[in-house]
Fold these 2 entries.
Entry 1:
Amino acid sequence: MKKTWLLGFGFFSISITWALYNAFVPFFLEKFLTSTALIGFMMTIDNYFALFLQPWIGSRSDRTNSRFGKRMPYLIIGMPLAALFGALIPWHTSLLTLVLFMVLMNLSMSLYRSPTVALMPDITQDSKRTQANGIINFMGGIGSILAFAGGSFLYEKHSSLPFLSASVLTLICLVILVYVIKEKRDAIAYTPAEEKNAVSFKGQWNRPTIFLLGAIFFWFLSYQGVEAFFTLYGKNHLQLTEGQSSFSLAFFSLAFVLAAIPSGLLGNRFGKKLIISLGVIGLIIIFAAISFVDALLPLRTLLILGGICWAMININSYPFIVSLGKEQSIGTRTGIYYLISSLAAIASPPLMGGLIDLLGYSALFYFSSGGMVIALLFLLCVKDKGLSRATTESNASTSL
């Protein structure tokens, strides 16, 4: 557990960077672009890299064997580069330079995101992974809170300060991880896969995995739409200031942080599927309710409830996917998880932006609530009897 808490610094750096990116980059883009759909498309750049790079890098890290371990080399290269290009984003001088810095930062983050996530199951026993995921997401949530609360304050001082702060914190987190995590010492079973026995995507598709990935796609479709456009929703629909809009997201993140570890414990106690289902049902209701809210206090109250429900979903979903495969496939299945979530993130902002252009910002939470309904239907198709055999049958089960 001590190693898990320290590993959380990796998630802390990722979360604070993405939270700032999603909160403030739309304001930069809005200066050059009038179409909300086009802004939404530009906000999906990171997911195109995630779509192609992260599955490959996750699988590649399963087979990497260096003196730093399987995953750590990717962090050592990617985190400093991401810190550099992230700090440059506010210093753009045109749309071209803004997009260039965005692309380079996202490319750098794609180098280390999957290996960072895969480190958790590497150093954690299977029976403790849901609880461990709660711990590291707790740390990630702290990063989001600092981003939305502290970032809002710094942004009003100067637009570069939040990004510069995140870059410094990313470098500090890398030093902590390199110093504390020694993969060959700390891994449960340090066995890099050989090239000739490399784990492939083909062997990962069993029925429980297919339905669970369908659910993951649709709940991320809903969540990413809200994340990408909430600050603009607050500014243009609720007439909040830019600082009030971004600070409101801190309430969601605070609730996520407080619910992260309890959600992992509940998943261990009552089963991941049940806890995820309750979270999805909760967000269906909450997103629908936000559509009727026009005041700050009820909005932030609903965001707190939404953060709790999102923790119930997000904390349990990644261990759920990993549990359906073999230990040697952790990096590969991590890549698949990000492949599906990235597909959702690519589809959601342009689709939501187009709906907003046509119907107005009120469409945001109607769309998100509907996506959660579809996610629930997929989740209900994940049969418990299939899950009990998943670990031993993952490569032999029915394929697409």
Note: Residues 208 and 387 are 7 Å apart (CA to CA).
Entry 2:
Amino acid sequence: MTLPLEGIRVLDLSRLLPGPFATMLLADFGAEVIKIEDPIQGDYMRWWPPFYTKDTNKESAAFLHLNRNKKSIILDLKDPEGQEIFYRLAEKSDVVLESFRPGVVKKLQIDYDTISRVNSQIIYCSLSGYGQTGPYRDLPGHDVNYLGVAGVASLTGEPDQPKLIGVQVADIGAGSLNTVLAILMSIIARNKTGRGQYIDVSMLDGAMTWLAFAFPRFWASKEIPMRGDDLLTGGRPGYGIYKAKDNKFVAVGALEKKFWRNLCTTIKREDLLEPADMEKKEISEILKKVILTKTRDEWFELSKQTDICISPVYELDEIMADPQVQAREMIVDFKDERFGNIKYIGMPFKLSETPGNIRTRAPGYGEHTEEILRSLNYSTQEIETLRKKEVISPKYK
């Protein structure tokens, strides 16, 4: 079976979460992704606990997940000979992804202007927190910082205190997914024009696009949303999270009139359909008491029968048993020769003719260095000389 991105080679200079997540998606659908790692420690995620351990093998669980289907080469890009290897790789590649601070790749002489002279069809993507331009371009940051500047963090939490979001919205939603989208659009454009281009992806920019519902409402009304009291953040009794009889939680999404009507009818509280004399808080208190009369799973079963938009709030150890998650193959098994069966998150979209898959485990640190150099016509003697000079890694074991 031919995968949609077979024949596309991606040189991945990124580390940690956003860049490797993006190239994981590309690799799952057939792209040859080569991780370019430095001789000091490589991708920092390699050393983040918890680890899978067996015999002498020890690997980061997060690293294995993010770097499946990829290859790894260790290169000293501060060395002219390391740069020359990178140029030769770039000449035969389609995409370069880097996530250094702005200006670093220029110092290393592997920036877009330099690489585009080697390969005019190269698609070169820089993924950073604040982007390549503007007064914040050189500032350090993480997910919480980008969500803060974007205004997203101000919408989450209690009225007197914003709260952290449980997943990395700016890193993955705004960074990784926009990177994949931009790269794929650039490949389509190159197929039409024959030219590559430069891509500037900012996690701040991406986070701001998540305001697609909140910002237009603010601009039209000129009213700053009240945290914990807006339409989708606690302002509607029929849209929220409630504790059930078994101390587990349900998510109630009776937002539209028909779903609210179904809920009120089901719980025999038709008086709540048009509660002219009741405050929202009073209605919420009524719902709290009602939800406490059944267990989480009883409410979910009732929702299936009555169309009332109630679902379970699962802990992570429960999602694998959910029949919908199973039907969509969103938890998949992979046989790792070192650690046995490992469960991974599956493909977020389904292609009928060319579905993505997990073909190979994540690479060891510099595991494919020799293989890749041989593909560039480096001789055994040249490879050994590069090893002695520490331009590349020691022989992989």
Note: The radius of gyration is 25 Å.
